[in-house]
Write the structure tokens for this entry.
Amino acid sequence: MDRVTGVLRGYPAGPLDEAVDPDGQIRPGYVDVIAALDGAGISGLRDAATELDRLRAAEGIVFTTDIDGVVQEQPFPLDPIPRLLSGADWARISAGLRQRTRALNAFLDDVYDQAQIVRDGLMPDWVVQQCPGFLPGARDLAPGGRPRATVLGFDLLHPPSGEWVVLEDNLRVPSGLGYAVANRRTAAAALPMLYPWDGVRSPEHVGAMLLEALTAAAPPRCRRETPQVALLSDGPANSAWYEHTLLARAMGVPVVTPADLAGDADGITAMVDGRSIGIDVLYRRLADDEIIAGPAVSPEVNLLLQAASRAGTVSIANAPGNGVADDKATYAFVHTMIDYYLAEKPVIADVGTWVLADPGQYEAVRDRLAELVVKPVDGSGGAGVMIGPEMTDEQIRQMQVSVAAAPERFIAQEVIRFSSHPTLTPLGLAPRHVDLRVFALAGADGAVAIPEVALSRVALESDGLLVNSSRGGGSKDTWLML
């Protein structure tokens, strides 16, 4: 192993750094990569970062977020230092997420049918009934036995144990798949000293794999031998509009909006480039559960989509109502689901969680909230997350008041100090925390595919633990090694 020099000179590596060990030596997988970056130097990396910003602005790789009550368009930053995952790590992650996908889809089938897991006493009824994402009106919106969640996203951390853990499950409208593809494309254009690099898996198969999974979600009364897939978006105002258009192009399918749809229970059509085409599968990228109730879909189109779905002439992927499976309280029971539905031991760990709707669990941590992470059960994108050790005394007091007023709205977890990675800052390379979003595609008969692409998100602030783009985070190109 090599000691840090060049671009890493003075780098303050800690015990959880993925590229540099605590003795100041470059970890084996990074030696050649760092040597290539040394050839460019910090000034060359700054030039590459400037080029990345230019390319991404020109490409429109942006997201929209609410800043002080005003919706603003922001670039999605890409750090020039890639993150490497070994083949062994990727194999373990893939196996764990295949298992988790099967269990979560089994839970969705169960909870919208007889809720046998509740009847058998393995999950309290209030976990389901008090869940904001549980929509009884969505009970029959996935006929024909297909998975209710076709596209799933999982957020993982690499904590001190060295074992990957799942921090969150995303089964409603998970984003990031297209941004991971875009990261590779723009990084390859701006960093010629690194690309192409032998032994790195390509993300360019994503469109074909996604189309295959959505095609497999065809409705029972599909009218075509090859189902017609379309991506359903609410348009450019959506925070992930760039991703919608990228994935649609990668699949070779149209993007349609609710206003483009017409038909009845016997079939739905969409206006595409001035002509009407029949639609069999809608890849839903609207905000959570807009099809049940939401401003993006008119009442007439809402009724149309529900009628066609119930009649088995159109499939909506992901099905509305999946929020019951990625609720933060439900998360605490996923290992129970794996044992109950699959009769297997969990392959991948998760984070110990207190469900504060349970009076006993709330009482156990009531006086420790300042030491913990407190999250709203139905939150997403880092919204509402309160990290006790990073809060002021007044913020902690307000958190305690909010939790005491409605403990059923929150869960609590230990603060996980997860891995860091060299990241370009105004002062040179410095360690910043990174997480990992990995995707799963559920097909017919329990088959699950894991696309060979992942999105690393990085907290751009020193010691920051929130990596979400809406909370000031950026991203890294993630190299999945063969």
Observations:
- The chain has three domains: 6-82, 83-345+417-480, 352-414.
- Residues 110 and 116 are 6 Å apart (CA to CA).
- The two ends are 21 Å apart (CA to CA).
- The mean pLDDT is 91.
